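hey so i finally got around to running both of the ones u sent me last week. sorry it took forever, my laptop kept dying halfway thru and i had to restart like 3 times lol. anyway pasting them below in the order u listed, first the sequence line then the structure token line for each. didnt double check formatting much so if smth looks off just lmk and ill redo it

first one:
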Amino acid sequence: MKIQEIYDYFWDEIDKDLEIQEIEGEDYYNKVVFNAFVRLIDNLLSDKPYDLDLAKTLKSLKRKNDIESIYSLIKREYLYRYVRINVKSIDFPKDLKRIMLIPIRSTIYEMMMGVLATMDCYGEHLVSLYKKDINFITPIDEGRLYDCSAIDNYTIDILDLKSMNLWYDYGEDWIFNITFNKLEYLEEYVPLKILKFRGRGILEDNKHILYDYLNHIDNEYIEEFDLDDYFLDDLEDLNDRAILDYDSLVYSYMGIDRSK
């Protein structure tokens, strides 16, 4: 069985799977999921697969021309396998937290956009991912992604991440610590899922307003921002908004068409 046959079969089956689930941004997710499947198969068929047992199973199925079982195997490993991450704001506001799931095969870029989406970020500012004093990701600046190879080609499982910081908006300095925890499986694919949360999110371009509100400081402009339910948001509504925001952020961050 040629590898191209597997890829052709995968493309048709992914299209069916996502159509059944009526996923928002279906055309884009076809490409996201297909590219992730290709990355996973390429890794498992390489000289240094991340999982030797899985690689042996894949190679055995390939020799048997069992393309349906190959698809089921890869789908389980990518489409329904998630990692639980804890996200919390550093410094301010301290009560802003998320416990969420993201696909284990997400690229670093997709993971970054998922976190931003859950924190109500519009994606109009610089963003980078770093650990200690090392800046892992070159910032996205003024519609230009300077070096996207690392964040587009590395998936979070391959990097074996433990904890990193996401820095958004270098002027207002929204910094989130991301801690990676256990693996879990879901019954259907979603680009992200918030399990628990505290706080609606950031207040884009108005950190001082949120600071005054949370610290009970008089500010005549606070009433313009409808913050009375800041800690009372609904989990289902928050998930729905985050997925829609993710669609927008990951598809075209800062005007960059990432569907190609």
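and the second one:
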Amino acid sequence: MTAPLIISVVGLVGLALYILLRRESEKDEAAMADRSKLSKEEKALLKAYAMDYILPPGHEDVPVLERDGFAFRDVAWMATEAPLDPPAPRLAALEGLGHGNGVSLLARLPDGQDVTVPARIIEPVEDGYLRAEILQSVNEAVGLERGRGVTIHRNNVRALLA
């Protein structure tokens, strides 16, 4: 390669990187503008969820969108970003999950749609992970069918069921 060609390639890569970073910056600015519209109580709730948040360690049995056709959303993280209606359960309520507890999960499908999945906890596993059984078929095409056992993290719980 000649020096002018190398300089041109480096320039193009630099321009592409600048555009990408600028777009990310604009997204961050939009998110901050949205947060400025929140009430004092909503901001306090987001902060409380952020203080509770624990990043789950990896686990090979957790459904992955590319492999399994669905993935459970990290509702605890979502609650740190924007108010959820109804609010997600707090960490203290989730730490006591055990055999027989009913939970509602939020699953992402390949088309980007989120669906609610009712499940029952079978047993705690480790590090906040739980084995659960799906209680109602939601989307059999991707395997979200009644009776299927799944590994979830307490961060995936959208709501506690009676």
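quick thing i noticed on the 2nd:
Confidence is low (pLDDT under 50) at residues 28-33.
anyway thats it, ttyl
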